[in-house]
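Regression report. Comparing outputs from two consecutive submissions.

Submission 1:
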Amino acid sequence: MYHDKIIAVVVPCYNEETQISQVIKTMPDYIDFIVTIDDHSTDKTVDIIESYSKTNEKIILITHQSNRGVGASIETGYVWARDKGIDVAVVMAGDGQMDPNDLPNLLDPVVDEEVDYSKGNRLFTGEAFKKIPKVRYFGNSILSLLTKIASGYWHIADSQCGYTAINRKALEMVNWNNMYKRYGQPNHLLVMLNILNFRVRDVPVNPVYGIGESSGIKLRSVVPRISYLLLKNFLWRMKEKYIVRDFHPLIFFYLFGIFFGFVTALLFGRLFFFYWIKGLDFPPLNAFAMMFSFMSSSLFILFAMWFDMEANKHLR
């Protein structure tokens, strides 16, 4: 136990035969359960976990009959923790990229009931840019910005870090069946937590790379897919949080901003392009109207973001 709280670590695994031993061996003694979720590995991951479970009664092995994605593995672990009445559930990947020395810093704000969910942030340290592969660092930065807008947690960064801790209240209230099943899971979960008004905090963690891990993430496909996911979840959050559950006028600001943006892009933009192709001078009145529409769109959207930021300040 940790400060009289029952702690379970959820370890999603897929083909981690080279890494899973180190994850298990370095798990702190105060962890009560090590819930390993094998997502239909094709290597010896399950055999290795089973060999450790014979001498370590803390290890729980749950296997998927088909490959369902890392989000689905985390869902399985969270549901297990919820059903067993676990006080705090932590997620640590099976590839060894999460430093167990950072675990107390993640647990403390949740155990002390300061927040409901804490997540690692590898970008706090000055070593992040040096350690994280540049392409992944760039992709992470884009998705972090989009996640701020979509989730309403404007103080959160490094949205793709899956090193997290969540309390029992959140485990019981979130509908895990609706959580995204693959690499966009951390982003989607933040949106779900915001709708339910849970408090979230970033915690500095050490970025761990070059230890033999292999990534299945392909940024060319992952970034557009998660960006689309975030757009859908942003619209869902606006509806659920600011229309269905409560009302906030920022909805009107977003609507006016989108309307004027649409007018600028599709009407004036096309007209300007037509004049440019024909080599004609763009009429001054149209130019003024186009600038007015663009400025209106920008201001309405910026004010909507500001209102959203103010509405979620108490969730830090």
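Submission 2:
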Amino acid sequence: MTPKKVRFDLVTIFPKIFDSYLGESLVRRARDNNILNIAVHNLRDFTLDRHAKVDGRPFGGGPGMVLQVEPIYRAVEAIRRKTSRLKKRRVILFSTRGKKLDAKGAKRLARYDQLILICGRYEGVDERVAKHIADEEISIGDYILAGGELPALVLMEAVSRFVPGFLGKEESLEENKGSYPVYARPEIFKVGKRKLVVPKILISGNHKKIEAWRKKQI
């Protein structure tokens, strides 16, 4: 049976933002092991404007600029054509009006073969993107960010944790057992006159009692 693989396509006007993250740690290992396939697309490559402009003033007036619908449409359609073999896909726009991302939502998205992530900027994105191009809008919290790049990274890691092989061991998933306090060496750490110690139960060697203690901490 072929291992599960997920493809992420990131649409952005700042593609270099992703360089460091995608080349480090678990994400890099997952890419090397063919568990994740990640492609970053510069939205400016899909505009017909000779100056590579992708934004415009909002109809009706108002501050700031708005990302235009046409280059986003062209980008998504180009990605669809290039990856036509992938049948189960989802197009996501990051928005403060979107549904809040949680573990349940991340697990649901991990079932798709491909996630196309549209990263907005400026004062917003033409509403026709939300209504006619994206399948859903997602928010990562009740606060404002300058763009959708950080939300894209958050979603990508949250989803990837549910892709078999990404973590190496399924036991690493905190969602399986909950999050409990953890400690490592040294057993006693001195800060001035204070001694910060590891709970005795964790160095008792009694794994049954340790498991019971951990369950109480959740």
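Expected: both submissions complete independently.
Actual: both completed, but the second showed a warning that disappeared on reload.
Relevant detail on submission 2: The chain has eight helices and nine strands.
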